[in-house]
Structures are given as structure tokens and as C-alpha cells.
TrEMBL record:
Keywords: Hydrolase. This is GAF domain-containing protein. One of its GO terms (molecular function) is phosphatase activity. InterPro entries: Bact_Sigma-Reg (IPR052016), GAF (IPR003018), GAF-like_dom_sf (IPR029016), PPM-type-like_dom_sf (IPR036457), PPM-type_phosphatase-like_dom (IPR001932). It comes from Micromonospora rifamycinica.
Length: 601
């Protein structure tokens, strides 16, 4: 390798700003490929027609590239450079875009080693920021020859940088959540007695599972038997879980919990703790406490058989609200030592942690319910048409709230034509789903009742997104289907989306190679063209989102090739069975998947 002359780094105080470096670390990114950011680099390279495009993040001592296209060796393998080779550090310094038609003419960068060693001549870099506006790096386009950057190119680069910043912020937010979980676990580890409980609660967001694990963790470690009681929104006890150390007593302790839930009186310790939020400790107790709690004689008999000599009850506080969502009751029989103040302190910590676990479970359940309702409300009811069969599937990514930006649609025009569409809005949250709903409605509003070619409909969609200033980066395929004497005529237009797949009745499989044009939502107008194909009886058109074919560890073209092989190997199957087969790989998917199959009858 040619020996490089190291030049002193430029003095840029912002590079060492602690908050910026903390955000940089919280992205979890390093000098390694990341498919999401490689995708941004590919988009920059394709849309701006440049040989090199980078998602560059800058630390105190280096810049590294989680997204990169076109870097020369050895930098393509290293995925990083020292600051002596960095233009992007100046974007951090000024906090504004850096646009250079010919870097060799600018004193600030003309001696930068990126010019001779990376071939950087023309450079355009847009800031990449965290939620607080701190610049972490830049999304940059690079050419090895002088170039006059156009206004449209810079607008496109700015739009992509905004989307790339959103992805960085998501990574930071996810890291913050992960850091909070780690801190909680460390706190648990400091209390050896609570380690098993902490580990059990950290493994679920399901409320019933969390409560069951809580009861199992404290028995027999802390008590002979225990009950966890939760209340409804009105403060009335509604759910109870009871566990005994002796498996032979399981039915009796379960019955005790059921009777206690139904027959607790206002003077019971459970209701007192729920009302006051203050714990109650009885180091020495007898069955009089049970008689005072309820008028059910059965409860006293059950308590005597279960063992009742000492007990304590602590609140389960609602995090951040000062309210009580339940109580934890620990009971020891006569053969075990009485509870004391140390046990009370441990039990209070149990109650606090239970509140966090149950509270998170409730929040997660509410979010999941909202997400499911939102998602399913936006997935349409497919029409019944005599000349085609329509089957659709939606599958969320693994371990994620069931919501995202993938969508499909199909509706019949007044003239009898069928409009079919599929698309993908960037993001995996309720905001992405809401934008997806807007986009799907725009497709319907723009297309319904119009006989325009699909490329014209796609151009109108571009104009509507731009005119209404809908902040989105999305891909889509829009198709019009019409019955003919020879089959079903299909015309389609592709805006940056994976190519449709044609499966003939005879089993042949091929990707439809119509032109894949720029994605939707760009600020400048882009040309749109249509393509045509004829479906014979039994032929199937498959429209799908990239979650079906995209993996972090392989190019998308390889994934599409594998999809074709799987479809071919499936042979002749009913449409619904084929769709289920394609989604049922058993692999953990990294992205949501939407699938729409259209089979000519």
C-alpha cells in the first residue's frame, strides 16, 4: 500500500461535544455495513447519479460508514477513515450543508487526504441530526470529477438526509430503551435476593405472565405462599394469582384467592393497602386477621390448612402516578420464621418492581391494541370478482408491535376494471402506519372513477404527495386489471418497489421487468412509465413488499432469486395456500411483509 502522509486534523470543538458523542454511541452503529443505511447510500447513488455515496458518522478521531456505495479499496473494506480524510467533519462544524463543485478550489479542504486517496472532487453533504439537533455526520454524494450540483439534486439529498436522520433517531431511542432495561437489571443484581424475580419479570410484557412469574419467584424464596391482587380502573380488585410452596396445596391456595377476591370486606388488609398505599406487616398473626377480612367461613378454614402465622402486604404502585394498581401478600406458616422489617423492605422493592413490570405490560397491551386496530382498519376488505381471485396477507416483523408502513389495496372501478396496489412507507411505528393510511387513501382518491393509464395515476400521486407536503418516503406498485377474451390484461407502474412476480398456470416463474422508477414523495417531478402483461387462466400475479425478500446479510437481488425458486418449488397450489407457504418460512423476519396475490380464473 502506498504510504500516506498524515496531516493534522482540523480543530473542530464540536467533534468532542459530549452530548453529540453520546448520541453517536447510542446509535449502536460502527464501521460495519448496515442494510438500512446502505439502502440510503444506494438511493443517493441512484437518484443523484454519483459513483460514491456515504452515510458518514464522525467521532473525535475518525469517520465511519454504516452506509456506503462505491468506496475504493481499502476503504470499502475498512468502512472508516481518519479525520485527515474527512469532509464530513466540516458539516458538523458548520451545522449546515456543505456543497463543493470542486473541492480542490476550496482552501479548507483542498489539502484533505480524501482528495488524492478517495478521489473526492465534487462533494455534497447534508447534516444528519439527533432529536436535539446535534449533527452526528452527513449523508453525502461524491464524484471524482468537478460537478455543478443542481437545486433538484440537493433537494433530493436533503429529503433523504431527513429520512436517514429519522432512522438514526430510532436507533438512538431503541438504544435508550435498551440502556434503561440494562440499568434496571443492574439494580436487580445488587439485590441478590431479588435476582430471580428481576430476571423473571424482565422476560415478558404480558401482564398475566408477569404476575405468575412474580408469584413463582417469591415462593418459596421469601414466603410459604403468596397472592398478587390487581385492580381495575375503578380500584376494585379483579384479578388474583395465588401460589403455595407445596404443589399438593395448589388447588386450595387457588380457591383461597378466588374467595378472597369475591368476599373481601372493607376492613381487610388488602383493601386497606389498596386504599392507603401503605404496607402492613404482621410479624405474629392468627386467623383473626382472616375473619376480619371476610365473612366467608371457607376462607378461615383454607388459611388454616395453608399455614397462617405471619404475613405482610405491600402496594404495587402505578409508575409515575402515585396510585396503587394492586398488592402483593406474603404469608408464612408456623414452621417458618416471622416476617420482619428487612423482609418488609424487600417486599416493598418487590411491589415497586412488580408495578414497573405490570405497568409496562399494560402500556404495551394498550399500544398493541391501538396498533392492531389501526393496522387492521387500514387493511381493506378485498372485493369478490368473478374473473380473478384475490388473496392478501400481512405479517408484522418478529417481536414488534403489530403495526408498520406496509400496505395493500384492491378495488373495483365503475367501469369494472380492478385497481390493485401495494406499497411500503419507511418506518415501523404508529406514525408510519398513519402515513400508510394517508397514502392508501390518496391512491383510492386519485384512481377511483378515472380511466387514466397507471403511469399517469402514479404521476398524480407524486404531485398530490408533494402538493400536500406529506412527509414520507415510500415505494409502491400500482396495477390496473381488465378482463379480455384472452385472459386478464394487466398494466402496472413501479415506484421504487420490488418487481411483481408472475406465476403461470404451468408453473413458470419470472419477475416482471418493467422499469423500477424512483420512490414516491420526492420533491422534484419524476417520469413514470407503465408496462403490460397478459394473465392467462390460472396465472398468478404476486405483489409483495421487500420484507419478503430482504435480509441484512444478503443483497435484495439474491433474496428475489430465492423467492422465485421457492415459488417454483411450491408447484401448483391454491392461492391462499401459496401465500401461507411464502410467509411460513419459520425465519424471524426483520421487516413487515404485505402480500397480494391475483389469480386469473
Amino acid at each position: 500500500m502506498t504510504e500516506r502522509t498524515e496531516r493534522p486534523a482540523v480543530d473542530i470543538p464540536a467533534l468532542a461535544e459530549p452530548g453529540r458523542l453520546r448520541s453517536l454511541t447510542d446509535t449502536g452503529l460502527d464501521a460495519a455495513p448496515d442494510e438500512a443505511f446502505d439502502r440510503f447510500a444506494r438511493l443517493v447513488s441512484d437518484l443523484l447519479d454519483v459513483p460514491v455515496a456515504l452515510v458518514s458518522l464522525v467521532s473525535e478521531t475518525r469517520q465511519f460508514f454504516p452506509g456506503a456505495v462505491g468506496l475504493p479499496d481499502p476503504w470499502a473494506e475498512l468502512r472508516q477513515t481518519p479525520l485527515s480524510h474527512s469532509f464530513c467533519q466540516h458539516v458538523i462544524d458548520t451545522e449546515i450543508p456543505l456543497v463543493l463543485p470542486d473541492a480542490r478550489l476550496y482552501p479548507r479542504v483542498r489539502d484533505n487526504l480524501a482528495v488524492p486517496e478517495l478521489g473526492v472532487v465534487a462533494y455534497a453533504g447534508m447534516p444528519l441530526t439527533d432529536l436535539d439537533g446535534r449533527v452526528l455526520g452527513s449523508l453525502c454524494a461524491i464524484d471524482s470529477k468537478p460537478r455543478a450540483w443542481t437545486k433538484a439534486q440537493l433537494h433530493t439529498l436533503a429529503d433523504l438526509a431527513a429520512a436517514c436522520s429519522s432512522e438514526l433517531r430510532l436507533r438512538i431511542a431503541l438504544d435508550a430503551a435498551e440502556s434503561a432495561r440494562r440499568l434496571a437489571e443492574q439494580a436487580h443484581e445488587r439485590l441478590g435476593l431479588l435476582a430471580s424475580l428481576s430476571e423473571a419479570l424482565a422476560g415478558t410484557l404480558d401482564v398475566e405472565t408477569a404476575v405468575a412469574r412474580l408469584a413463582d419467584a417469591v415462593v418459596p424464596l421469601l414466603a410459604d405462599w403468596a397472592m398478587v391482587t390487581l385492580v381495575d380502573q375503578g380500584g376494585t380488585p379483579r384479578w388474583v394469582t395465588a401460589v403455595h410452596r407445596d404443589p399438593a396445596r395448589a388447588a386450595e391456595v387457588t380457591r383461597f384467592g378466588e374467595v378472597a377476591l369475591d368476599r373481601l370486606g372493607p376492613a381487610s388488609i388488602t383493601r386497606t393497602v389498596l386504599r392507603t398505599g401503605q404496607p402492613v406487616l404482621r410479624g405474629v398473626a392468627d386467623l383473626a386477621d382472616v375473619r376480619q377480612a371476610s365473612d366467608a367461613p371457607e376462607l378461615v378454614a383454607l388459611a388454616e390448612r395453608l399455614g397462617f402465622a405471619s404475613h405482610l402486604t405491600v402496594p404495587v404502585p402505578t409508575p409515575g402516578r402515585g396510585a396503587v394498581m394492586g398488592v402483593v401478600t406474603l404469608v408464612n406458616g408456623p414452621d417458618r420464621r416471622a416476617f420482619d422489617d428487612d423482609d418488609l423492605g424487600t417486599a416493598l422493592e418487590i411491589g415497586r418492581r412488580a408495578g414497573q413490570a405490570v405497568g409496562n405490560g399494560w402500556i404495551y397491551g394498550e399500544q398493541r391494541h391501538v396498533a392492531e386496530v389501526l393496522q387492521h382498519s387500514m387493511l381493506p376488505q378485498l372485493p369478490q370478482i368473478p374473473w380473478v381471485e384475490l388473496v392478501a396477507r400481512y405479517q408484522p416483523a418478529a417481536d414488534r408491535v403489530e403495526v408498520g408502513g406496509d400496505w395493500y389495496d384492491a378495488f373495483v372501478q365503475p367501469d369494472g376494471d380492478l385497481i390493485a396496489a401495494i406499497g411500503d412507507v419507511a418506518g415501523h411505528d404508529i406514525e408510519a402506519a398513519a402515513t400508510m393510511g394517508q397514502l392508501r387513501n390518496l391512491v383510492r382518491g386519485n384512481a377511483y372513477g378515472r380511466g387514466d393509464p397507471v403511469d399517469e395515476l402514479m404521476r398524480r400521486l407524486d404531485a398530490t404527495i408533494s402538493g400536500l407536503r406529506i412527509p414520507t418516503a415510500a415505494t409502491a406498485v400500482l396495477a390496473r386489471l381488465r378482463p379480455t377474451p384472452d385472459g386478464v390484461a394487466v398494466t402496472w407502474c413501479n415506484a421504487g418497489h420490488p418487481a411483481p412476480l408472475l406465476v403461470t398456470a404451468g408453473g413458470d416463474v419470472r419477475l416482471l421487468d418493467g422499469r423500477r422508477e424512483p420512490l414516491l414523495g420526492l420533491t422534484r417531478p419524476v417520469p413514470r412509465t407503465g408496462a403490460e402483461v397478459l394473465l392467462g387462466p390460472g396465472d398468478t400475479l404476486l405483489l409483495y413488499t421487500d420484507g419478503l425478500v430482504e435480509r441484512r446479510d444478503q443483497p435484495i437481488d439474491e433474496g428475489m432469486g430465492q423467492l422465485c425458486e421457492r415459488v417454483a418449488a411450491a408447484g401448483a397450489r391454491p392461492t391462499a395456500e401459496l401465500c401461507d407457504l411464502l410467509l411460513g418460512t419459520g425465519q424471524r423476519r426483520e421487516d413487515d411483509v404485505a402480500l397480494l396475490a391475483v389469480r386469473a380464473r
